[in-house]
Amino acid sequence: MKNRLLDGEAVMEPVARQKLQETAGHGQTRLLSLDQTDLGDRRAGLMVSLRVGDRSLPLAWIAEEGAANMRFEGQRIVLERGRGWLPAGAEVLGLADRFYPSVALFEWLQHNGWPDRLRLKGKLWADPGAGDETTTGELARGGHKRYLPGCSCLPKGGDEPGYFA
Question: Which end of the chain is more exposed for a tag (fewer CB within 10 A), N or C?
């Protein structure tokens, strides 16, 4: 992922543009997924992928030394790269799974007009707007949809946190 002799962006750009354009012919909303992973406790990888059927095609990625919890700056890099390859007027749904989001990420998604579905860790603190703070896990419990101003929590089941949209 981080070979200095290989320019991943140059290799992926024509493939990414082609796949992103193909979905335009079908009038589909492009599902772009942001995912980060720990690569053996020494490195972290962060990528944005295009969902194609039941698979994901990695479009852009970065790798860094250190923990897997990359901050917004890394997220912005891969999101901007993927956004730059989208056809004009493309509809996008941003997806992300179990990481620590930031206000900056939500602002970036809103600014670019991307609705989102983010599955959050259950131990994040949230203010549902009624003056009480609780965790995202507590908001997701109960087996029914909960709606917050500009946000809904869709329970996953068990101890899994819900998806926030």
Answer: N
pLDDT of residue 2: 58
Bridge partners of 124, per DSSP, are none
**119's tokens:** 């599955």
Please compute Rg for the chain using Cα positions: 17
Q: How far apart are CA 81 and CA 22, in angstroms?
A: 18
For domain 1-119, the CATH superfamily is Transposase Inhibitor Protein From Tn5; Chain A, domain 1 (3.90.350.10)
Q: Token pair for residue 129? A: 């707007």
Instruction: Dump pLDDT digits (tens) for 78-102.
Output: 999 999 999 888 899 888 876 666 7
